[in-house]
TrEMBL record:
Keywords of the record: Copper, Oxidoreductase
InterPro entries (UniProt xref): Cu-oxidase-like_N, Cu-oxidase_fam, Cupredoxin
A GO MF term: ferroxidase activity
Entry-linked Pfam families: Cu-oxidase_3
Protein name: Laccase-like multicopper oxidase
EC number: 1.10.3.2
Species name: Morchella semilibera
Originating gene: mco
Cellular component terms per the entry's GO annotation: high-affinity iron permease complex
Residues in Plastocyanin-like domain copies: 1-50
Length: 50
């Protein structure tokens, strides 16, 4: 599992964009991953899913 974000421009943080096996390794059961990125000066519709 991972969390995939829509609408954010992830400048220099594409490794937390979420698609498993594409930009990020999946989060294995009983483990966690802290998503940390900034969305400065961005306006629009944003959503996420796993």
């Amino acid at each position: 599992t991972s969390v995939h974000w829509h609408g954010f421009f992830q400048h220099t943080t594409n490794y937390v964009d979420g698609p498993s096996f594409i930009t990020q390794c999946p989060i294995v059961p009983d483990n966690y991953f802290n998503y940390n990125f900034q969305a400065l000066n961005q306006a629009g519709t944003f959503w996420y899913h796993s």
